[in-house]
Each structure stands twice: as C-alpha cells, then as structure tokens.
Amino acid sequence: MERNNRRLLTAVVVSDKMDKTRVVRVSWVSKHAKYEKSVRSFAKYKAHDEANATKAGDVVRIMETRPLSKDKRWIIREVVK
User: Model-level pTM?
Assistant: First the structure.
C-alpha cells in the first residue's frame, strides 16, 4: 500500500554522471510579495535511479522518501518525457 503523504514533483535531469544517482532541477514561478512581479526559482535535488535509466534532459517525476545517503532524499518514480 502506497502512502499518500509523500511529495511528488516534476523535475528535469541536469546531471547523470554518478552511478544510480541523478541531479534534478525543480522550477517554479511565484509572485514577489511587494512588487507582484513573477519570479522564477529553482532547487536542485539528488534522486535515486536504480536502473540508471535516465539521461540529462529527461523530464521525470520524483517522490520524497527516507534518507538513502547523505544528500539523497528523493527517488525517480517515472520518466515523463
């Protein structure tokens, strides 16, 4: 049974140089509090890819999970594009 309280995010793979680990970039747009201008922000996460199936440029869906290493807290669920 899958837990429903885990976060799911859509991200782009930016690095595939590590074994079974991908660096992914999550982007979002928000409004500035005072000036109401659209501001683009991003965060980079390390995600686990057991089969080494993804390459740089792929759009993937990642899911939050238990700590797998010092920096890895996400796993790649599926390749979107």
Answer: 0.88
